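User: I'm designing a mutation panel for Nucleobase-ascorbate transporter 10 and want to avoid disrupting the core. Could you give me a predicted structure to guide residue selection? Please restate the sequence first so the numbering is unambiguous.

Assistant: Good idea. Sequence first, for numbering, then the predicted C-alpha cells:
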Amino acid sequence: MGGGDAEKARVIQTMLFVSGLTTLLHSFFGTRLPVIAAASYAYIIPITSIISSSRFTHYIDPFERFVRTMRSIQGALIVAGCFQVLVCFFGVWRNIARFLSPLSIAPLATFAGLGLYQIGFPLLARCVEVGLPGLILLVLVTQYLPRCLKMKQGGIWDGSRCDRYGIMICIPLAWLLALLLTSSGVYNHKPQTTQISCRTDRNGLISNTPWIYLPYPFQWGSPTFHFTDSFAMMAASFVTLFESTGLFYASARYGSATPIPPSVISRGTGWLGVGVLLNGMLGGVSGITTSTENVGLLAMTKIGSRRVIQISATFMLFFSIFGKFGAFFASIPLPIMASVYCIVLCFVSSAGLSFLQFCNLNSFNTKFILGFSFFMAISIPQYFREYYNGGWRSDHHSSWFEDVIRVIFMSHTTVAGMIAIVLDCTLSRENDEAKKDCGLKWWEKFRLYNLDVRNDEFYGLPCCLNKFFPSH
C-alpha cells in the first residue's frame, strides 16, 4: 500500500481499538456469548484487489498512495458494514439460520476451525526452531502434565489448572527462546523471510508506535466509494456471516449455554456489522468477525465467562491507546502464535463434529450429506486457490465479479455451510424418519427463542431491553 512502520502501527492500533469496542458492544447487546470480535481473513481478497488496482499505480509518493488506498478501503468497508447491519437487524439472516439442523451445523462449525489450517503448521514451519518447541511444550503442559501430577483437586499444583494457564506458561518460554536466538545473532545473516518470521525485533512496531494514540474518525481523510470495491467487500461480509454463525454454535456448546436461537444469531452478527462500519469510519484495514482462536481458547481453558471477555476487551482498548504496550506483545513471532493455533483450532473443529451425536450416522442419507459437504468444502476452495494463485489466471488482474466468486468459494466454511443447508433442506425434510435422522426432531425446541425458558439466562439483554428488541 506504500505505508511505512508508523502507518502500520496506527492501523494496527485502530483495528485493536475497534475489536475491543465491538467486543464490548457484542457482550452487552449482541449474542452475549463469551466471544471476541477480531479482524477477518475473508477480507484479504477484496483488500488485495483494491491495493493492486491500476488507479493507484500513478502515485509516486508512497505515503500518498497509502492514504488514497486506505480511503478506498474505508469506503468499501462502510458499504459492507451497512449491508451486514441491514441483513441482520431486519431479520434476513435470522430466517436463513432457521433452516439449520444439527446435520448442517456440523460441517458449518467444523470448517470454521479446519478452514484456517493454513495458519497452523504452515505458519509454524516458517520458523520451526521456535514454533515446534512451542507446540510440543503446549501439548505436554495442557494434556500430559495433568495426568502426571495426579494431585487432589484444589491443590496448588492442581492438574486441572494446566490447561487453563498452559498458554500463559508456554508462550513466554517460546518467546524467550526467540529473544535469545535474536540477541545471539543467529538470524543476522539469514534470508529476509526468515528474519521476518523469527526475529522479535523484526517489524519496527515498538520504535514507531506512539506512547498514546486515540483513533478518530476519518483519520486518513474522507473515504472514497467505488462500485466494484463495494461488491467484493460485501461478499466478504456475507462469508463472515457463515463463519460467525458456526462459531456461535461452537461457543454456545463450550460455554454450556443452550443452542443459540436464530434471532440471537442475527442480533449478534448485526453488531459485528457495526464493528465493520466502525473500522471503515476509523481507518482500519479489515472487517470484523468472531475470533475463531478465542472459541478454541474457550474450550481449552474451560472459562465460559462473559465478564472475562469484557475485561479482555478493556485490555484491548488499553493496548490500542497506549501503543507501546500493545507493540511489545505484537513482537511475538507469528510461528509461536501458530503453535497455539494448532491447539485451539482443533477444539473449534471438534465442536462441530459433536453435533453429529444428534444425527443418525447409520443413515446413508446422513452419510451422503455429511461426506459430500466435507469433501466439496475442501475441494472447491482448493480449485479456486490453484486457478488464481498458480494457474493461468494468476498473472491477470481479476474483475470485481471474479473477486466476489473468489471470496465466496475460497471460504471452506461458506462452501460447507451452503452445500450442507441445501442438501439438508431438500433431502432430510421429507418425512418424520428423515427429520429424526438429521436431528431436526431434537432441534425443534431450540428454533425459537421463547421455546426454552433458559434462553433468557444466556441471551437476555440487560436493562430490560428485551421488550424493545424482542427475540422472536
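For picking mutation sites, this is relevant: Residues 5-447 form one domain. The chain is about 65% helix and 0% strand.
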